[in-house]
């Protein structure tokens, strides 16, 4: 079955696609799977990882929203995967590679979204960035410290997925674009649902250029990428759509990401994570055994960041309460 897939890639993929049998391989050699290509194996390893399962209880933008329909880090990840696969399919690029990168790109994200990331970046003298932590998750932290030994191309795409990154494959560039396409559009939906603004408040040029609905905007963006990138060794949007997308991103930063109404819990979340960081730095005996073991190889700031960034929102609250909230005194 694996050979059938590899032959299809040779027949139908663009000459610029990263074909599965051309991978630069894994850090530790493994015998090929008789059924799956290397990128399909990576996808499966990510889906079955503990870090992937935790994404369902991590904030995307809104902290502890009242309602079941707001995006979480997991639904965002699935959204990015869907958009990336759609782009890869129309450009005859490697859909499996895109899917693996997309599913793994946010594995290292902190509880409480970018608030948690900013806390760890500020407190850790080594710095902290969720893309670098995502790579550390798959290389070091998963599988009880053995990592899951992904291919070079998937690891590169995870590390370089940020807007400032430079992925070495077209599939990696697709995921970087898909990440922005996904979060801009679903964050609009969440902001409207939260009453922060109405659809008609979007900039006039954005509506005229990209469309007035989520599906319309996504279709416009993907169509632009297709028209500008088909048959080329690059992945990009046309100038008009790229300009409108940038304008939309600026609007969202002003009205949502930096808006006090949308972030009214941010200060409390920041103070909670900061207190826990300080506590575990001075009480290493209170770390779980796995993280105590990491101290034999890594410095305390790295290990505390590993532990805190692994937490879901709910588990972070639970740990904080266990540390700092007095227990009810019971008389026997």
**Secondary-structure element string:** HHHHHHHHHHHHHHHH
Count of helical regions: 16
Cα-to-Cα separation, first versus last residue: 66 Å
Radius of gyration: 21 Å
Secondary-structure-derived class: mainly alpha
Number of domains: 2
Largest sheet, in brief, is: none
General description of the model:
By secondary structure, the chain is mainly alpha-helical. It folds into two domains: 2-257, Hypothetical protein af1432 (Orthogonal Bundle); 266-324, no CATH class. It is 59% helix and 0% strand. It is built from 16 helices and no strands. The protein has helices at residues 2-12, 38-47, 50-54, 73-90, 95-104, 113-123, 130-141, 152-159, 170-193, 204-210, 214-229, 239-257, 266-282, 289-294, 300-310, 313-324. α4 (73-90) runs antiparallel to α5 (95-104) and α6 packs across α13 (266-282). The longest helix has 24 residues, at 170-193. The chain is flat. The relative contact order is 0.13. The model has no long low-confidence stretch (mean pLDDT 94).
What are the salient characteristics of this protein?
332 residues, mainly alpha, Hypothetical protein af1432, 2 domains, 0% strand, flat
Produce a short descriptive summary.
The protein is an all-alpha fold.
